[in-house]
């Protein structure tokens, strides 16, 4: 069995010969054990999960963490146990927080395995038997029928009216007719291999026999599982920006600590004192509260998004949405409803339009011309009766989606007839039509539905408002024009016809289907979601591109794209195969619609966009979307219609399956990102102030203004709650009209960094000023406490600078965030406790301050806000005169 052929291109007999099986008896039982040993069980391989220990150790790899660890160890070496314990506790807390974020089970492959049919009916050695699906081997002959989930990949060797729903694999919304004849084109796309059946697809009609050709990891589903296992989860833009910030801060800390140690030793300063100063500097340079604040802020964003129908599984995904520049959306079930619906048609000489979605019959049929329509019930009888679908007790469709669309059309027309069916010929891909015979009150009625060209060949008459007319060449041409008109709009067109027959027709319905009367043409489609077009327009206004990816044909995909307002090229999977990665990257931004794509194409498209610097989101619902969802910067799955595999692969799940929810989530993501940047501005200005204060103090003859534990107190306790409260700031006006931040853009631009340096310098001057004044009075403990308290109060005022850009901090939004004011009140109380409560004084090396000390500290600290407001006022006054 070496050298696998293209199974769709060989005959059933040749396939059996290649696999050393038998067309009718199946595989000899004595070969099963050897093949099972050679090919392995029919299940998907499991990816070895990362151990918990490795996950935890990886949390200690960042430079900031290593610098803090070093500072804590140095503090312990010189005997400063309190600082060592506190610093190391912060390191461990942040590591546990990161571990908790990362630790979620990788259940994707397990879910894929659970989707396999647990039992399969096979014929081995000429006898039928039922076996576990995982015991199937190449060469087995499997029997499938309506309702079965296909257990492996195989070549059909027999088929009887067989149709399979392959949307989970190919993304094509229409069920596929299957037969066992061989195909001659070796390059036939996956979605058009009508003589093959694939693992995890569902048989919707008919029955068949298939020769198993691939099992487990070698199936199409196995390839998807392999892509999932091989696809690394992307780092988010925020993670990349914060990592870059961390590296710069670690470098600054290392340089400054080295300078302080060298200068202290050259000046003859005691080793312990130099190390303490160095530890304080290291702690001052690092925003220890950053991981906790980012986590809490993202968690708040998760909660808010959940209330709007978006369940976020990975915290960082909240921020990624705010940075998204391209959304690649699966068509079926995401931009469209994944419900075939009659949209238009022709009957009794008039074109009609159909409103309403779903299968419940809500909607109406109206004349496109605006005239009054004649009673269409006789013309549309075949839509309701020549139909095997029905609505379940809960209103959901049971049966084929195309037949569901016709059933809904019949309900909208008011058809209530339930004539008994006495004979039928099921739809067959060879005949391309279906025949049923019913016992009506006035005799036997033969009803037909099928492909227009095939049905019209069997028609001799056409039904018009004034009765039946002969189907002349003129009428034939006009009906062909109507068919082409609907097909050009990417509608799937079906013809309906009928005839009155006698009892002899019951013996051979196919032969009786002659001299029919054509009653109607019906155009069907999977319609766009009502809000999808507006959502795409909102994306465009926000600078976000939208690309539609589908398994449908080019014409259908292009038509849906036009309805949704997607402008750009339409490219097929076959054309993608002819492009290398560089060529695809060059063209990908100009392509709006990708048609007839396979799962690996979707991964390539996402990778090409990422290569161009885009932050790519991918939405989808089928198994065929899972690998691309995992590869994307953020994968978004549909919660209602999505597969378990897709929901596991995605970082976010939409509970309402509505593309418009993605846009709402993007707005929330941008708001959260905006608020995280506010905190970074706030925390960095604090770090700059602390770093400058500790660095400059010894050079101007002052004692170190802070102990290391005091800086930790500021960074975590004093800055933490107010910074977390920033997560509740509402979205800025105009947020959704701004372009997304480029992935390469720093988290803070140079102009903002200069402003933060100015804030830090202001804090340094004020803090060292009160330290100099108090140190001159001889009480060093009081001097340090006053400097410490002044620095804490600087944070109270500086957070209002961090909330805004060029506008005044005293704008209408000042009191919009009640939680911020509660947090600020809380930290003031905590600072009073740290200064005036005995046990806290022992921990933080503080002493009580007088009322006048507090007043001085408050007045000095307010300067950081007052001076910045004066600067902004001057800019607003000068800017108009500068043009």
TrEMBL record:
> SUPFAM superfamilies attached here?
Calcium ATPase, transduction domain A (SSF81653), Calcium ATPase, transmembrane domain M (SSF81665), HAD-like (SSF56784), Metal cation-transporting ATPase, ATP-binding domain N (SSF81660)
Ranges for domain Cation-transporting P-type ATPase N-terminal come to: 6-80
Asked whether the UniProt record includes Protease among its keywords, one would answer no
Keyword set includes Metal-binding: yes
Pfam entry (one) = Cation_ATPase
Q: Which GO terms describe its cellular component?
A: plasma membrane
Against Gene3D superfamilies, the record matches this protein to: Calcium-transporting ATPase, cytoplasmic domain N (3.40.1110.10), Calcium-transporting ATPase, cytoplasmic transduction domain A (2.70.150.10), Calcium-transporting ATPase, transmembrane domain (1.20.1110.10), HAD superfamily/HAD-like (3.40.50.1000)
User: A Gene Ontology MF term for this entry?
Assistant: ATP binding
Its topology with respect to the membrane?
Multi-pass membrane protein
Alphabetical UniProt keywords: ATP-binding, Hydrolase, Magnesium, Membrane, Metal-binding, Nucleotide-binding, Translocase, Transmembrane, Transmembrane helix
Localization per record: Membrane
The EC class name is hydrolase
Q: So what EC number does this one have?
A: 3.6.3.8
Q: What is its main location?
A: membrane
Q: Which domain of life is it from?
A: Bacteria
Q: Which InterPro entries match?
A: ATPase_P-typ_cation-transptr_C, ATPase_P-typ_cation-transptr_N, ATPase_P-typ_cyto_dom_N, ATPase_P-typ_P_site, ATPase_P-typ_TM_dom_sf, ATPase_P-typ_transduc_dom_A_sf, ATPase_P-type_domA, HAD-like_sf
**Membrane spanning stretches:** 60-78, 84-100, 249-266, 278-303, 688-706, 756-774, 786-806, 818-837
List the NCBIfam families.
ATPase_P-type
Name assigned to this protein: Calcium-transporting ATPase
Q: Which organism does this sequence originate in? A: Magnetospirillum gryphiswaldense (strain DSM 6361 / JCM 21280 / NBRC 15271 / MSR-1)
Question: What is the gene called?
Answer: yloB
């Amino acid at each position: 069995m070496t050298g696998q052929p293209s199974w769709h291109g060989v005959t059933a007999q040749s396939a059996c010969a290649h696999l050393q099986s038998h067309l009718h008896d199946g595989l000899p039982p004595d070969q099963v054990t050897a093949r099972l040993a050679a090919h392995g069980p029919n299940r998907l391989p499991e990816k070895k999960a990362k151990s918990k220990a490795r996950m935890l150790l990886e949390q200690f790899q960042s430079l900031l963490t290593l610098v803090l660890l070093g500072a804590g160890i140095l503090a312990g070496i010189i005997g400063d146990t309190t600082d060592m314990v506190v610093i190391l506790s912060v390191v461990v807390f942040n590591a546990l927080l990161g571990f908790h974020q990362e630790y979620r089970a990788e259940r994707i492959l397990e879910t894929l395995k659970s989707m396999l049919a647990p039992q399969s009916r096979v014929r081995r050695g000429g006898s039928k038997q039922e076996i576990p699906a995982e015991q199937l081997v190449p060469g087995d002959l499997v029997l499938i029928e309506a309702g079965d989930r296909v257990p492996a990949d195989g070549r059909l060797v027999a088929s009887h009216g067989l149709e399979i729903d392959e949307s989970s694999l190919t993304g094509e919304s229409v069920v596929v007719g299957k037969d066992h004849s061989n195909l001659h084109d070796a390059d036939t796309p996956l979605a058009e291999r009508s003589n093959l059946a694939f693992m995890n697809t569902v048989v919707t009609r008919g029955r068949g026999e298939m020769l198993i050709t691939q099992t487990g990891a070698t199936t199409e589903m196995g390839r998807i599982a392999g892509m999932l296992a091989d696809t690394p989860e992307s780092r988010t833009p925020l993670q990349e920006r914060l990592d870059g910030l961390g590296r710069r801060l670690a470098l600054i800390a290392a340089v400054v600590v080295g300078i302080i140690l060298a200068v202290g030793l050259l000046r003859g300063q005691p080793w312990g004192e130099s190390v303490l100063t160095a530890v304080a500097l290291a702690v001052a340079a690092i925003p220890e509260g950053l991981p906790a604040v980012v986590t809490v802020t993202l968690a708040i964003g998760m909660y808010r998004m959940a209330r709007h129908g978006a369940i976020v599984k990975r915290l960082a995904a909240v921020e990624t949405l705010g940075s998204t520049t391209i959304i690649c959306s699966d068509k079926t079930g995401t931009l469209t409803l994944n419900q075939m619906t009659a949209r238009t048609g022709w009957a009794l000489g008039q074109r009609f339009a159909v409103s309403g979605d779903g299968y419940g019959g809500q909607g109406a049929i109206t004349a496109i011309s605006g005239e009054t329509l004649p009673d269409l019930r006789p013309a549309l009888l075949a839509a309701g009766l020549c139909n095997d679908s029905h609505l379940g007790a809960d209103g959901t469709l049971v049966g084929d989606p195309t037949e569901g669309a016709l059933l809904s059309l019949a309900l909208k027309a008011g058809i209530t007839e339930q004539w008994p069916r006495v004979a039928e010929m099921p739809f067959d891909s060879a005949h391309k039509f279906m025949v049923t015979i019913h016992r009506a009150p006035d005799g036997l009625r033969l009803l037909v539905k099928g492909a227009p060209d095939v049905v019209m060949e069997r028609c001799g008459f056409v039904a018009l408002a004034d009765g039946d007319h002969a189907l002349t060449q003129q009428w034939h041409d006009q009906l062909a024009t109507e068919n082409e008109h609907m097909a050009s709009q990417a509608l799937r067109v079906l013809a309906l016809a009928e005839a009155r027959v006698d009892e002899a027709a019951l013996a051979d319905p196919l032969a009786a289907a002659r001299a029919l009367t054509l009653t109607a043409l019906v155009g069907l489609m999977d319609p766009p979601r009502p809000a999808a077009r507006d959502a795409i327009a909102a994306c465009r206004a926000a600078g976000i591109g939208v690309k539609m990816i589908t398994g449908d044909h080019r014409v259908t995909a292009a038509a849906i794209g036009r309805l949704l307002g997607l402008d750009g090229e339409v490219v097929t999977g076959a054309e993608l195969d002819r492009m290398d990665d560089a060529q695809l990257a060059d063209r990908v931004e100009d392509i709006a619609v990708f048609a007839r794509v396979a799962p690996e194409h979707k991964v390539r498209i996402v990778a090409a966009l990422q290569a161009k610097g885009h932050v790519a989101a991918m939405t989808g619902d089928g198994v065929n979307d899972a690998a691309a969802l995992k590869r994307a910067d953020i994968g978004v799955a549909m919660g209602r219609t999505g597969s378990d595999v897709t929901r596991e692969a995605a970082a976010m799940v939409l509970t309402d399956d509505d593309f418009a929810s993605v846009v709402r989530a993007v707005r929330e993501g941008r708001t959260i990102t905006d608020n995280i940047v506010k905190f970074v501005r706030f925390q960095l200005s604090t770090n700059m102030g602390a770093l400058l204060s500790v660095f400059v103090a010894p050079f101007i003859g002052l004692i170190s203004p802070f102990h290391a534990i005091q800086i930790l107190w500021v960074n975590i306790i004093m800055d933490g709650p107010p910074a977390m409260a920033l997560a509740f700031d509402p979205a800025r006006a105009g947020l959704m009209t701004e372009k997304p931040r480029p992935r390469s853009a720093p988290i803070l631009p140079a102009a903002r960094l200069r402003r933060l340096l100015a804030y830090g310098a202001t804090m340094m001057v004020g803090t060292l000023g009160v330290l100099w004044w108090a140190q001159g009075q001889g009480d060093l403990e009081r001097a340090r406490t006053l400097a410490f308290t002044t620095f804490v109060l600087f944070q109270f005022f500086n957070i209002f600078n961090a909330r805004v850009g060029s506008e005044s901090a005293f704008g209408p939004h000042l009191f919009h965030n009640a939680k911020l004011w509660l947090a600020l009140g809380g930290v003031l109380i905590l600072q009073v406790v740290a200064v005036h409560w005995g046990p806290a004084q022992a921990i933080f090396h503080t002493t009580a301050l007088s009322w006048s000390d507090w007043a001085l500290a408050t007045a000095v600290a307010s300067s950081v806000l007052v001076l910045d407001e004066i600067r902004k006022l001057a800019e607003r006054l000068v800017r108009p005169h500068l043009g």
